[in-house]
Design a protein that fits this description.
The protein has 6 helices and no strands. The chain has about 170 residues and is an all-alpha fold.
């Protein structure tokens, strides 16, 4: 599936949820939570969705990858801060909220890693590199694959080409 807007990306939506829950935690944070900790935590949480958005809008795969890794680093920073918070006795009543936040941050990290892996193995250079010639080439490839599938479908089931195609799908 091709996404047209960063707001539609599942990882951005998950990062937005993480921000909402983190904001709720900070709203009800105990007075012992230092302002500097709160500020850094909020910045790290916001960095995840913001870097996904910025990378998506950049227009090249290499730039997108850079921002995905920055976002992933921020997700790790959020998890680290939550782990440190759990070590504080005065935060023990927040254990359930912190656990939920950690799960969301881990989910963001996993999604970002999978996205980065798929992009690293892709020949796509990014939206900025698309022109009429490259678009026409991609369209021609899609049409050729569709014709090939139609031709294979009309071959007898025991035809060697049909068997070869079935083996290559495994």
């Amino acid at each position: 599936m091709t996404y047209q807007r960063f707001e539609d990306l599942p990882v951005w939506q998950e990062a937005a949820r993480l921000y909402e829950f983190a904001d709720d935690l900070l709203e009800n944070a105990p007075p012992r939570m230092r302002h500097s900790f709160r500020d850094q935590f909020e910045r790290a949480v916001l960095s995840i969705s913001n870097n996904v958005a910025e990378g998506f809008e950049r227009g090249t795969t290499n730039e997108l990858l850079q921002f995905i890794y920055i976002a992933r680093g921020s997700a790790g920073e959020v998890r680290s801060m939550l782990c440190l918070l759990l070590r504080r006795s005065w935060a023990s009543h927040l254990k359930s909220e912190i656990s939920n936040l950690k799960s969301l941050a881990e989910s963001c990290s996993r999604q970002l890693r999978a996205w980065a892996d798929s992009l690293q193995n892709s020949e796509i250079k990014g939206q900025r590199h698309l022109n009429d010639h490259s678009r026409a080439g991609e369209e021609q490839k899609r049409k050729a694959i569709a014709v090939q599938k139609k031709l294979l479908a009309i071959l007898p089931v025991n035809h060697p080409l049909r068997k070869k195609e079935a083996e290559s799908e495994i």
